[in-house]
Protein backbone atom coordinates (compact mmCIF):
# COMPACT_ATOMS: atom_id res chain seq x y z
CA UNK A 1 0.00 0.00 0.00
CA UNK A 2 1.50 3.35 -1.04
CA UNK A 3 1.29 6.56 1.01
CA UNK A 4 -1.80 7.94 -0.75
CA UNK A 5 -3.64 4.63 -0.33
CA UNK A 6 -2.72 4.53 3.36
CA UNK A 7 -4.15 8.03 3.87
CA UNK A 8 -7.37 6.98 2.16
CA UNK A 9 -7.60 3.75 4.16
CA UNK A 10 -7.30 5.71 7.41
CA UNK A 11 -10.75 7.18 6.72
CA UNK A 12 -12.33 3.75 7.17
CA UNK A 13 -10.81 2.68 10.51
CA UNK A 14 -13.47 2.93 13.25
CA UNK A 15 -12.64 4.40 16.63
CA UNK A 16 -13.03 2.41 19.83
CA UNK A 17 -15.89 4.71 20.81
CA UNK A 18 -17.76 3.81 17.63
CA UNK A 19 -17.10 0.10 18.16
CA UNK A 20 -18.39 0.34 21.73
CA UNK A 21 -21.53 2.16 20.60
CA UNK A 22 -22.10 -0.40 17.86
CA UNK A 23 -22.40 -3.06 20.55
CA UNK A 24 -25.27 -1.06 22.08
CA UNK A 25 -27.14 -0.32 18.84
CA UNK A 26 -29.85 -2.95 18.45
CA UNK A 27 -30.73 -4.24 15.00
CA UNK A 28 -29.59 -3.89 11.40
CA UNK A 29 -28.70 -0.57 9.76
CA UNK A 30 -29.81 0.87 6.42
CA UNK A 31 -28.06 3.84 4.81
CA UNK A 32 -30.32 5.67 2.37
CA UNK A 33 -28.43 7.78 -0.17
CA UNK A 34 -25.21 5.82 0.28
CA UNK A 35 -23.70 6.86 -3.06
CA UNK A 36 -23.30 10.52 -2.03
CA UNK A 37 -20.00 12.16 -1.06
CA UNK A 38 -20.03 10.85 2.52
CA UNK A 39 -21.95 7.62 2.02
CA UNK A 40 -19.07 5.29 1.18
CA UNK A 41 -17.02 6.52 4.13
CA UNK A 42 -19.95 6.15 6.53
CA UNK A 43 -20.96 2.73 5.21
CA UNK A 44 -17.46 1.29 5.56
CA UNK A 45 -17.18 2.64 9.10
CA UNK A 46 -20.54 1.07 10.00
CA UNK A 47 -19.58 -2.29 8.57
CA UNK A 48 -16.10 -2.40 10.07
CA UNK A 49 -17.32 -1.23 13.47
CA UNK A 50 -20.02 -3.91 13.35
CA UNK A 51 -17.45 -6.57 12.49
CA UNK A 52 -15.04 -5.43 15.18
CA UNK A 53 -17.80 -5.32 17.79
CA UNK A 54 -18.89 -8.84 16.75
CA UNK A 55 -22.48 -7.58 16.71
CA UNK A 56 -23.12 -9.25 13.32
CA UNK A 57 -25.44 -6.58 12.04
CA UNK A 58 -26.66 -6.61 8.46
CA UNK A 59 -25.73 -3.36 6.73
CA UNK A 60 -27.69 -2.13 3.71
CA UNK A 61 -26.59 0.59 1.31
CA UNK A 62 -29.36 2.05 -0.84
CA UNK A 63 -29.02 4.50 -3.74
CA UNK A 64 -29.74 4.94 -7.44
CA UNK A 65 -26.11 3.94 -8.20
CA UNK A 66 -24.41 5.02 -11.39
CA UNK A 67 -23.19 2.11 -13.47
CA UNK A 68 -19.75 3.70 -13.87
CA UNK A 69 -18.74 5.04 -10.46
CA UNK A 70 -17.78 1.69 -8.94
CA UNK A 71 -19.27 2.56 -5.54
CA UNK A 72 -21.73 -0.33 -5.53
CA UNK A 73 -18.97 -2.85 -6.22
CA UNK A 74 -16.77 -1.33 -3.50
CA UNK A 75 -19.58 -1.53 -0.97
CA UNK A 76 -20.38 -5.13 -1.83
CA UNK A 77 -16.71 -6.10 -1.56
CA UNK A 78 -16.91 -4.80 2.00
CA UNK A 79 -19.83 -7.11 2.79
CA UNK A 80 -22.53 -4.43 2.57
CA UNK A 81 -25.76 -5.47 0.85
CA UNK A 82 -26.61 -2.90 -1.81
CA UNK A 83 -30.04 -2.12 -3.18
CA UNK A 84 -30.62 0.01 -6.27
CA UNK A 85 -33.60 2.27 -5.70
CA UNK A 86 -35.16 5.37 -7.22
CA UNK A 87 -36.54 6.92 -4.04
CA UNK A 88 -39.26 8.76 -5.95
CA UNK A 89 -40.66 5.48 -7.27
CA UNK A 90 -43.60 4.28 -5.17
CA UNK A 91 -43.00 0.62 -5.96
CA UNK A 92 -39.24 0.70 -5.41
CA UNK A 93 -39.56 2.57 -2.14
CA UNK A 94 -42.18 0.18 -0.84
CA UNK A 95 -39.95 -2.75 -1.81
CA UNK A 96 -37.18 -1.73 0.60
CA UNK A 97 -36.83 -4.01 3.63
CA UNK A 98 -37.81 -2.85 7.09
CA UNK A 99 -34.87 -2.35 9.45
CA UNK A 100 -34.45 -1.13 13.01
CA UNK A 101 -32.03 1.71 12.20
CA UNK A 102 -32.05 4.16 9.27
CA UNK A 103 -29.43 6.76 8.39
CA UNK A 104 -31.04 9.14 5.90
CA UNK A 105 -28.51 10.91 3.64
CA UNK A 106 -30.68 11.66 0.60
CA UNK A 107 -30.63 15.29 -0.48
CA UNK A 108 -30.38 17.69 -3.42
CA UNK A 109 -28.30 20.88 -3.29
CA UNK A 110 -26.28 21.91 -6.32
CA UNK A 111 -28.56 22.74 -9.21
CA UNK A 112 -31.42 23.92 -7.00
CA UNK A 113 -31.63 27.26 -8.85
CA UNK A 114 -33.83 26.58 -11.86
CA UNK A 115 -34.89 23.20 -10.50
CA UNK A 116 -36.58 24.28 -7.29
CA UNK A 117 -39.54 21.93 -7.55
CA UNK A 118 -37.27 18.88 -7.69
CA UNK A 119 -35.24 20.15 -4.74
CA UNK A 120 -38.39 20.51 -2.66
CA UNK A 121 -39.62 17.06 -3.70
CA UNK A 122 -36.36 15.41 -2.67
CA UNK A 123 -35.62 17.52 0.41
CA UNK A 124 -39.11 17.97 1.87
CA UNK A 125 -41.65 15.56 0.31
CA UNK A 126 -39.55 12.38 0.30
CA UNK A 127 -38.75 12.58 4.05
CA UNK A 128 -42.45 12.15 4.81
CA UNK A 129 -42.52 8.96 2.77
CA UNK A 130 -39.44 7.65 4.58
CA UNK A 131 -40.71 8.66 8.01
CA UNK A 132 -43.99 6.85 7.35
CA UNK A 133 -42.38 3.67 6.04
CA UNK A 134 -39.84 3.53 8.86
CA UNK A 135 -42.05 4.74 11.68
CA UNK A 136 -40.92 1.85 13.89
CA UNK A 137 -37.19 2.50 13.30
CA UNK A 138 -34.59 4.79 14.82
CA UNK A 139 -33.76 7.50 12.27
CA UNK A 140 -30.77 9.79 11.86
CA UNK A 141 -31.69 12.42 9.27
CA UNK A 142 -28.89 14.46 7.73
CA UNK A 143 -29.54 18.18 7.55
CA UNK A 144 -27.37 21.28 7.16
CA UNK A 145 -26.16 24.31 9.07
CA UNK A 146 -27.53 26.33 6.14
CA UNK A 147 -30.87 26.45 7.98
CA UNK A 148 -29.28 29.15 10.14
CA UNK A 149 -28.85 32.73 8.88
CA UNK A 150 -25.50 34.41 8.48
CA UNK A 151 -24.51 35.89 11.84
CA UNK A 152 -22.24 38.65 13.04
CA UNK A 153 -18.85 37.38 14.09
CA UNK A 154 -19.15 39.40 17.30
CA UNK A 155 -22.36 37.57 18.25
CA UNK A 156 -20.94 34.07 17.88
CA UNK A 157 -22.23 30.98 16.10
CA UNK A 158 -25.83 29.79 16.66
CA UNK A 159 -26.45 26.73 18.81
CA UNK A 160 -29.52 24.50 18.59
CA UNK A 161 -31.45 26.97 20.77
CA UNK A 162 -31.15 29.58 17.97
CA UNK A 163 -34.27 29.65 15.72
CA UNK A 164 -33.64 28.65 12.08
CA UNK A 165 -33.88 31.36 9.46
CA UNK A 166 -33.25 29.58 6.18
CA UNK A 167 -32.04 31.80 3.32
CA UNK A 168 -32.79 30.62 -0.23
CA UNK A 169 -34.84 27.70 -1.50
CA UNK A 170 -32.20 25.03 -0.86
CA UNK A 171 -31.98 25.92 2.83
CA UNK A 172 -35.76 26.37 3.06
CA UNK A 173 -36.36 22.92 1.60
CA UNK A 174 -33.84 21.46 4.07
CA UNK A 175 -35.69 23.11 6.93
CA UNK A 176 -38.79 21.52 5.40
CA UNK A 177 -37.04 18.14 5.67
CA UNK A 178 -36.38 18.77 9.34
CA UNK A 179 -39.95 19.81 10.06
CA UNK A 180 -41.36 16.72 8.35
CA UNK A 181 -39.12 14.37 10.35
CA UNK A 182 -39.99 16.29 13.53
CA UNK A 183 -43.70 15.97 12.79
CA UNK A 184 -43.60 12.22 12.23
CA UNK A 185 -41.31 11.73 15.21
CA UNK A 186 -44.07 13.20 17.39
CA UNK A 187 -46.97 11.52 15.57
CA UNK A 188 -45.51 8.02 15.43
CA UNK A 189 -43.18 8.17 18.46
CA UNK A 190 -40.25 7.53 16.10
CA UNK A 191 -36.87 8.17 17.79
CA UNK A 192 -35.11 10.66 15.50
CA UNK A 193 -31.92 12.71 15.38
CA UNK A 194 -31.70 15.77 13.11
CA UNK A 195 -28.01 15.93 12.13
CA UNK A 196 -27.19 19.54 11.16
CA UNK A 197 -23.79 19.27 9.50
CA UNK A 198 -21.38 21.87 8.14
CA UNK A 199 -18.83 21.46 6.63
CA UNK A 200 -17.45 17.91 6.29
CA UNK A 201 -13.89 17.72 4.94
CA UNK A 202 -12.65 14.86 2.77
CA UNK A 203 -9.16 14.23 1.40
CA UNK A 204 -10.50 15.10 -2.06
CA UNK A 205 -13.27 17.57 -1.38
CA UNK A 206 -14.39 20.41 0.86
CA UNK A 207 -13.32 23.84 2.03
CA UNK A 208 -9.88 22.77 3.22
CA UNK A 209 -9.14 21.00 -0.06
CA UNK A 210 -10.43 23.98 -2.06
CA UNK A 211 -8.18 26.42 -0.22
CA UNK A 212 -5.22 24.04 -0.53
CA UNK A 213 -5.71 23.66 -4.28
CA UNK A 214 -6.08 27.43 -4.69
CA UNK A 215 -2.80 28.08 -2.90
CA UNK A 216 -0.98 25.28 -4.72
CA UNK A 217 -2.20 26.45 -8.15
CA UNK A 218 -1.90 30.16 -7.31
CA UNK A 219 -5.60 30.78 -7.85
CA UNK A 220 -7.16 33.84 -6.16
CA UNK A 221 -9.05 33.23 -2.92
CA UNK A 222 -12.12 35.35 -2.21
CA UNK A 223 -12.07 36.39 1.46
CA UNK A 224 -15.59 37.83 1.63
CA UNK A 225 -16.84 34.72 3.48
CA UNK A 226 -13.80 34.94 5.67
CA UNK A 227 -14.58 32.33 8.30
CA UNK A 228 -16.08 28.83 8.42
CA UNK A 229 -16.54 25.75 10.57
CA UNK A 230 -15.13 22.45 9.36
CA UNK A 231 -14.99 18.86 10.58
CA UNK A 232 -13.03 15.89 9.25
CA UNK A 233 -15.40 13.65 7.32
CA UNK A 234 -14.50 10.51 9.27
CA UNK A 235 -15.32 12.27 12.55
CA UNK A 236 -18.64 13.50 11.13
CA UNK A 237 -19.52 10.01 9.89
CA UNK A 238 -18.78 8.49 13.28
CA UNK A 239 -20.97 11.06 15.01
CA UNK A 240 -23.78 10.33 12.56
CA UNK A 241 -23.65 6.61 13.29
CA UNK A 242 -23.43 7.17 17.02
CA UNK A 243 -26.42 9.53 16.78
CA UNK A 244 -28.62 6.43 16.47
CA UNK A 245 -28.09 6.00 20.22
CA UNK A 246 -29.35 9.51 21.06
CA UNK A 247 -32.39 9.52 18.74
CA UNK A 248 -35.47 10.62 20.64
CA UNK A 249 -39.02 11.83 20.33
CA UNK A 250 -39.46 14.75 19.95
CA UNK A 251 -36.53 14.68 17.54
CA UNK A 252 -33.10 15.48 18.96
CA UNK A 253 -31.44 18.30 16.97
CA UNK A 254 -27.63 18.32 16.93
CA UNK A 255 -25.26 20.77 15.23
CA UNK A 256 -22.20 18.92 13.96
CA UNK A 257 -18.93 20.64 13.07
CA UNK A 258 -15.51 21.40 14.51
CA UNK A 259 -14.89 23.56 17.58
CA UNK A 260 -12.97 26.36 15.81
CA UNK A 261 -14.18 29.31 13.80
CA UNK A 262 -11.51 28.98 11.13
CA UNK A 263 -10.13 32.00 9.30
CA UNK A 264 -9.90 31.35 5.55
CA UNK A 265 -6.90 33.72 5.37
CA UNK A 266 -5.14 31.88 8.19
CA UNK A 267 -5.77 28.51 6.55
CA UNK A 268 -4.41 29.73 3.22
CA UNK A 269 -1.29 31.04 4.93
CA UNK A 270 -0.67 27.66 6.54
CA UNK A 271 -0.94 25.95 3.14
CA UNK A 272 1.38 28.57 1.68
CA UNK A 273 3.99 27.49 4.20
CA UNK A 274 3.51 23.85 3.21
CA UNK A 275 3.75 24.52 -0.53
CA UNK A 276 6.28 27.37 -0.44
CA UNK A 277 3.79 29.58 -2.24
CA UNK A 278 2.38 33.07 -1.77
CA UNK A 279 -1.43 33.01 -1.47
CA UNK A 280 -3.43 35.38 -3.66
CA UNK A 281 -6.38 37.06 -1.99
CA UNK A 282 -9.24 39.13 -3.35
CA UNK A 283 -11.81 41.02 -1.33
CA UNK A 284 -11.80 41.40 2.44
CA UNK A 285 -13.49 39.58 5.29
CA UNK A 286 -17.13 40.46 5.97
CA UNK A 287 -18.22 40.76 9.59
CA UNK A 288 -20.93 38.12 9.01
CA UNK A 289 -20.57 34.42 8.18
CA UNK A 290 -22.43 31.09 8.14
CA UNK A 291 -21.39 29.40 11.38
CA UNK A 292 -22.59 26.74 13.83
CA UNK A 293 -22.00 26.13 17.52
CA UNK A 294 -21.53 22.36 17.95
CA UNK A 295 -20.90 22.32 21.70
CA UNK A 296 -23.87 19.99 22.23
CA UNK A 297 -22.39 17.38 19.87
CA UNK A 298 -19.01 17.73 21.59
CA UNK A 299 -20.66 17.18 24.98
CA UNK A 300 -22.30 13.98 23.69
CA UNK A 301 -19.51 12.52 21.54
CA UNK A 302 -16.39 14.40 22.62
CA UNK A 303 -14.36 16.72 20.46
CA UNK A 304 -13.58 15.58 16.90
CA UNK A 305 -10.40 13.51 16.86
CA UNK A 306 -8.90 15.29 13.85
CA UNK A 307 -7.83 18.89 14.47
CA UNK A 308 -7.75 21.67 11.88
CA UNK A 309 -3.93 21.60 11.81
CA UNK A 310 -4.04 17.85 11.19
CA UNK A 311 -6.53 18.44 8.35
CA UNK A 312 -4.08 20.90 6.83
CA UNK A 313 -1.17 18.48 7.21
CA UNK A 314 -3.09 15.52 5.76
CA UNK A 315 -4.52 17.52 2.85
CA UNK A 316 -1.07 18.90 2.02
CA UNK A 317 0.44 15.42 1.97
CA UNK A 318 -2.44 14.12 -0.13
CA UNK A 319 -1.99 16.74 -2.83
CA UNK A 320 1.81 16.66 -2.80
CA UNK A 321 1.73 12.88 -3.23
CA UNK A 322 -0.61 12.97 -6.23
CA UNK A 323 -3.92 12.28 -4.51
CA UNK A 324 -6.97 12.88 -6.66
CA UNK A 325 -9.65 15.53 -6.10
CA UNK A 326 -13.40 15.73 -6.73
CA UNK A 327 -14.19 18.67 -8.99
CA UNK A 328 -17.30 19.78 -7.12
CA UNK A 329 -16.92 23.21 -5.49
CA UNK A 330 -18.62 23.58 -2.11
CA UNK A 331 -19.78 27.16 -2.83
CA UNK A 332 -19.18 27.92 0.84
CA UNK A 333 -18.76 31.58 -0.22
CA UNK A 334 -22.46 31.77 -1.19
CA UNK A 335 -24.23 34.50 0.80
CA UNK A 336 -27.68 34.58 -0.86
CA UNK A 337 -28.55 30.88 -0.48
CA UNK A 338 -28.48 30.22 -4.23
CA UNK A 339 -27.01 26.82 -5.14
From TrEMBL:
NAD-dependent epimerase/dehydratase domain segment(s)? 29-197
- Return the InterPro entries for the record: Epimerase_deHydtase, Lipid_A_modif_metabolic_enz, NAD(P)-bd_dom_sf
**SUPFAM superfamilies, per the entry:** NAD(P)-binding Rossmann-fold domains
The cross-references to Pfam families, in alphabetical order and at most eight, read:
Epimerase (PF01370)
Write the protein's name: Nucleoside-diphosphate-sugar epimerase
Amino acid sequence: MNYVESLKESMYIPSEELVDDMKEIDGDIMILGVSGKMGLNLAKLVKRASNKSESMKKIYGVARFSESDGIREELESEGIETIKCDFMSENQLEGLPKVKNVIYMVGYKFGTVGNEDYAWAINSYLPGRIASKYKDSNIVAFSTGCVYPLVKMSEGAPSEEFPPEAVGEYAQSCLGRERIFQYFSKQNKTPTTIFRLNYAIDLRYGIVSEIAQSVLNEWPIDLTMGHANVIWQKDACEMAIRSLRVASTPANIINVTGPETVSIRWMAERFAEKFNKTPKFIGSESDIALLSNASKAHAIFGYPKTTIREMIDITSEWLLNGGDTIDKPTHFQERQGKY
